[in-house]
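WARN no homologs supplied; continuing
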Amino acid sequence: MSEELVVSGGSLLDLLGERPADLLISDGRITDIDEHGAFAGRGLEVDASDALVMPGFVDIQVHFRTPGGEESEDISSGAAGAALGGVTACLMMPNTVPTIDNPVLVAEVLALGRQTPCDVYTSAAVTVDRAGERLVDFASLYEAGVRVFTDDGTVVDSADLMRGALEASSLFPDVVISQHAEHSEMVEGGIINEGEVAERLGLKGRPPEAETVIVERDIDLARETGGRYHVLHISTASASSLVRDAKTAGLRVTAEVTPQHLILTEEDVERLGTSGKMNPPLRTINDVRGLRTALFDGTIDAIATDHAPHSPLSKSVGLAEAPPGMLGVETMASVVWDEFVARGLMTPQRFITLLSVAPAAIAGIATHGTSLSVGKPANIVVFDPRERWVIEADGLQSKSTNTPWPQKEVHGRVRHTICNGALVVHDATLV
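OK structure emitted
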């Protein structure tokens, strides 16, 4: 039996509203809620004074590089960074070496994830070895616990295979097919966004139309099959408009966006160097504006980081040679709060929806993103909205340093994280 925790002095904030109250936590769940001071002496006190007590955050796109890329990140280091960022559940992508495309690898990854301060789930590939030639065994992977299927890192180019995947998703409860939406031939050899910066640097670009073409095709397939479709790290205003229309038509379509696509543009690549390279690439200011509109009107359902660590050595080359990817899981909440909530552009409850409730629902993670109510799982973050701190690349938990936010001062920081009733981060330090 785990030690009882008393989360005291804070304001509970979830989709039910905001109210001052203390929480009593035992055996992994919220067992009582009462006025401040009601549980004094009942257990280990977790100080939430002047802070918000919220459902733990859920990041549904992380690359923890296990198996095959542990020099850049592993499940232990990735989950530790997640916990420091208030993330109580995260979903790994399957573009590992070897590819996570079978129940044996799924079981190995989930076993490693059970030893960390954050619940680690994994997706599986849509096609065997992400080769785009034949579909995986959805039934066996579903039985192993997989609910999200994606060839992330590459697109499912074949319409026939994508149709088959979406048909399969309609056969299993809670299954979603997620797509890295960039047409392979259109982006082949592309380094950054096709535009002024690519021309100035003499680099081949990745055209925004490559995303729109795939999203449009896949939405048509979702309409045809009744399947459930999710757009990973959407990056263009035009693609978000297609998602908006699909939702209006009642299709089972969702989308996520990264903090970097909501804030940074192709102009930032020159400042950030290889830490500013990712796929899909940072786009234009008009795309940022379009994505923000889609975020505010509910077209985009969730924020996810696409946390993609790469070793300092692999990133210490030119833009053309460097692997694409940025860190994000540890800084997501602070960056989003600072950019949107602290500036009055987003309500705290919308923040919770985007970072906790909606991503948990998309990925079928039922024990996270829940209300702060008696009997609910105790997956909780205590977030201080007033604390200011500076993001230091070398100070993050990741094995890698490729953050797009070096030296950025932000409002808002995670003070404590509770995962499955256990205090895993106390006063911004791993327990």
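The CA atoms of residues 263 and 378 lie 32 Å apart.
OK
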